[in-house]
Amino acid sequence: MRQICFVIVMFAAAALRGQVGEFRSALALGVNGGYVLNRVSFNPTVKQNFHGGMTGGITLRYTCEKYFSMFCAVQAEVNFAQMGWKEDIETSQDMYSRTVNYIQVPLLARLSFGREEKGVMGFLVLGPQLGFYLSDSDKRTGEWSSATLGLRPNHVTEQYDLKVQNKFEYGITGGLGLEVNTRRAGHFMVEGRYYFGLSNLFHDGKSDPFGRSANGAIVAKVSYLFDVFSRK
Fold first, then answer.
1. What is the end-to-end Cα distance of the chain in Å, rounded?
2. For residue 85, is it within any domain?
3. Euclidean distance between CA atoms 23 and 18, whole angstroms
4. Using an 8 Å Cβ cutoff, are 168 and 199 in contact?
């Protein structure tokens, strides 16, 4: 929650600084798509490789000012994302992965530098992200006997039979990217982000098997936006 409060303060500070910036009023709308590499941070630890999945959705961006050479905007997205985890089991031929599907809503502050109308810009995005659970499914191969389960590191096996218990998640996301601006064709972007989950998939009480079970994701994505209106 401290991180979320910090982001809110940063939004407020940007709004105050905006009183001395050059006016902008530009609304852009478009689509985005990409690939997610996710792990779930378990405590006790569950050894994992990255779980790969798709993400995609719609993007809305409003640019409100130019402050010296920096362009300030707010950006919201509504995305479908395949999260989850893939276990790294070295003690047997068993294999396990879980895919957890979400609707995710990042609410981002965006700072960019470069050519506003025709050319290349670099940008930074940062802000809170909300997630709403849709469904999950798992995949198991191998022997899956009591003997192979007994060989798991730390003897941690409770995750296999647990359904996702917290249907709402939240965290902080941020990233860097490049944008190519054209006057007629729109805006083309490529970026990388990291998402740090602050909530857990499973209950974390004293009697529950996991004290932490939060998503952490690396996201690579491309986006295309077109201008709805643009005024200076």
1. 37
2. yes
3. 9
4. yes
Q: At a CB cut-off of 8 Å and minimum separation 6, what does 206 contact?
A: none
Q: Where are the alpha helices (DSSP H) in 54-192?
A: 146-149
Question: Structural domain of residue 99, as residue ranges?
Answer: 2-15+32-176+198-225
Q: Identify the sign of the CA torsion 168, 11, 77, 35.
A: negative
Domain assignment present for 160: yes
User: How does pLDDT run across 155-213, given as a tens digit for each residue?
Assistant: 899 999 999 999 999 999 999 999 999 988 899 999 999 999 999 999 999 999 999 99
Provide the token pair at 22: 């050059």
Q: How many domains, the chain?
A: 1
Q: Is position 25 within any domain?
A: no
| Residues with Cβ within 8 Å of residue 218, at least 6 apart in sequence | 36, 37, 38, 50, 192, 193, 194
Give whole-number Cα distances, 150 to 29, 98, 153, 155, in Å: 52, 20, 9, 6
Query: Alpha-carbon distance 151 to 47, whole Å?
Result: 13
The enclosing H or E element of 128 equals: strand 119-141
Count CB atoms within 10 A of the CB of residue 65. Answer: 19
The reply to whether 120 falls in a domain is yes
Inter-residue contact 135 to 101 (CB < 8 Å): yes
Token pair listed for 58: 């719609």
Residues making up the chain, counted from first to last: 232
For residue 30, list its beta bridge partners.
59, 225
Q: Which residues contact 63 (CB under 8 A, 6 or more apart)?
A: 24, 25, 26, 27, 28, 71, 72, 73
Provide the whole-model pTM. 0.88
